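FORM 7B: Structural annotation worksheet

SECTION A. Query
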Amino acid sequence: MKKYLLSFAVLMMGTFLFTACSDDDDDDRQPVAVDVSEGMFIVGSGNTRSNIDGNLTYINYTNGTSTLNAFQKANGKSLGKTANFALVYGQKLYIAVDGENTIWVCDKNTLKVIKQINTVELLGETKGISPRAMVGYKDQLLFSLYGSGDNSLVAAVDTVNFALKNTYATGSYTDGITVVGDYLYAADSDYGNGVKPSITKCDLKTGSSQQIKGKDITNPMHMLTIGNDAYFLDYGEYDASWNQTGAGVRRVAQDGTVTRVVDGTAMCTDGKRIFTVNAPYGGSEITYLIYDPATGQTKSWTPTDIFSPAAIAADPVTGDIFIISYTKNEDTGYPGYNLPSYVNQYSADGTFKKRYDCGVGPISIVFNTSVKYE
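SECTION B. Predicted structure
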């Protein structure tokens, strides 16, 4: 995009105008692309027990405001039951709503609905159940279908007409997905049963796939990419009293080797490092860790004013860290899962910056980033 355009009349004004310019005139300077981050979208799953639908909150960094129920305000209708995931890809915001078998396609600036993708209509009543995670790939939207056991898969639609382009076979109860190069990695959670959990690796060019299994794959849920490696968050195991053990982040190398890298029950990345919250169910201690794949080193930090962490995110442009917390139910003293939550913003060094309000059941965070030219 050029800084300005010269009209035909200006071009014909004569060579004396050009010779009058000094040698250090910067009119021919090329625009420089700059990554910017303007805010973040937070998807709340709501609370089915309290009959609370899913919700979308938008945090605006520029004016320091928080807009709750942003989707409903823009469109005059609810997201639906159990919203699950959000993705910004190009100029669109995609929101997966598990309980409605729906993916909303919105203009990311106005939040107006462009398209409602009904995954059952697209894929059938058996395989189109429960859209979960999403990722963009070469003008296609890839999304996982949690389905029911072996009915799980990953589907691809184009981002213009939203027509079905392909489907990829995965394992049992597929949840998180990510792309590394031309390979899709899918976390096959097996519904936490621990019988046949796996990571499915699909070649997006040929459609061929393989399932990666091993002792360090017990309950894989969420996935992300750093460099040439895929990482997944494994929820570990639960005993008869629902005490959680073994949760953490694992790396999947290109050859399928799986390595434990850092403990955690929630994770995110800024594109270079992995941030985790380690708050195992039934445990008494909560820790916050930062893992650097380049060095293999892990360090801890202690954010302020977090009652009960629900999710964590790191802005890939600014490096700021965001932690969402459930609020305290004053009647019970426990986290209020049916109450509005809040998110704290910290600088990259852990300094508290600002607190914002957000909706019920926070579950997914995506940043509103773009490229501008200066």
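SECTION C. Observations
DSSP finds four helices and 30 strands in the chain. The first strand starts at residue 33 and ends at 44.

SECTION D. Sign-off
Analyst initials: ____
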